[in-house]
Amino acid sequence: MTYDRLVCANCAAPVNEGRCPVCRASRERLQQEQGQGIFAGLSPVTLAALLVLLLGALALLAQRTV
């Protein structure tokens, strides 16, 4: 989940602006969560391309074993 569209329940401002302590804490927590994981830094287009390559490799392997 990204925090650029979230609205703070405390101050009714966008969380990414960090106007109140609750916003700043939520923004920090979400930034830490987004930085974790193997594929966290990859764009959706890159992930889709990797998936297509993987499916293509699997199709080639399946064709060779037949």
Report on the architecture of this protein.
The chain has 66 residues and is mainly α. It has two domains: 1-35, no CATH class; 41-66. Helix content is 55%, strand content 0%. It is rod-shaped and about 60 Å long.
Please tally the β strands and state the result.
0
Low-confidence stretches: none
Rg calculated over all Cα atoms: 20 Å
- The sequence of SSEs as H and E is HH
Spatial separation of the terminal alpha carbons: 43 Å
| Total number of helices | 2
The SS-based structural class is mainly alpha
Q: What does the main sheet amount to?
A: none
| Proportion of beta-strand residues | under 5%
Return the domain count: 2
Question: What's the rounded overall pLDDT mean?
Answer: 84
Tell the overall outline: rod-shaped
Roughly how much helix do the residues carry, as a percent range? 40-55%
User: What oligomeric state do the depicted chains represent?
Assistant: single chain
